[in-house]
Amino acid sequence: MRSCNILILFALCVLVNLFFNTLATSAELIEPSRTLEAEPETTGRLTVLSEPPGLKITLDGDSLGKTPAFMVEVQEGVHTLRVKDSQTDIYVKPGKTLKISLHKDEFILIPVKEKPVEEEPATEVTTEKPVTSVATPRDPIQQKVDRDRRQSQQRWQRFIDGSSPARIF
Q1: Looking at residue 53, what DSSP letter applies?
Q2: Measured between alpha carbons, how far is residue 162 from residues 70, 96, 157 in Å?
């Protein structure tokens, strides 16, 4: 009986020792796998709209699908955007959104409302179309066509950015 009590006491000591050793080893600090500092963004977002919708979009020769395309992740830098048969160069800044629309074969940059930051503009757009000189007199019919085109573009831009007074019931 005495040897049985000694054996039970020995087993109890071993179990208590194992329990406390396990607690001590699990209480060690673990190094963090991530930091709270944000890594610098290297991508921006691109939204492409068109009138009519459903036109094929390519960016630097790679297909992005059809319009409308919303918030597509794009690497920062200069890219060649092609919608149907029209092409333009765009500049995407990291962490910024570039919204662009093709309306009557001309690209329109749509301003994106973001938090006001005192920086340079978020995007730049250049087109491949030649710029006509203002000093050259033009045909009155061509002037009317140009004026109508500008007004149509302005209406489209107001519709896209939501500032149009027109309402659909």
Answers
A1: S
A2: 16, 20, 8
Look up residue 86 and give its amino acid: S
In this structure, which amino acid lies at residue 162?
A: G
Alpha-carbon dihedral sign for residues 67, 70, 75, 76:
positive
Say what the pLDDT of residue 94 is. Answer: 87
Q: Residue 46's closest CA among 84, 83, 5?
A: 83
**Residue that is written with structure tokens 């978020």 in the block:** 122
**In this model, does residue 137 exceed pLDDT 70?**
no
Q: What is the mean pLDDT of residues 11-34?
A: 71
pTM: 0.51
Q: Which amino acid is at 53?
A: P
* 69-75 β-sheet, strand order: 69-75, 43-51, 97-103, 106-110
Q: What is the radius of gyration, based on Cα positions, of the chain?
A: 32
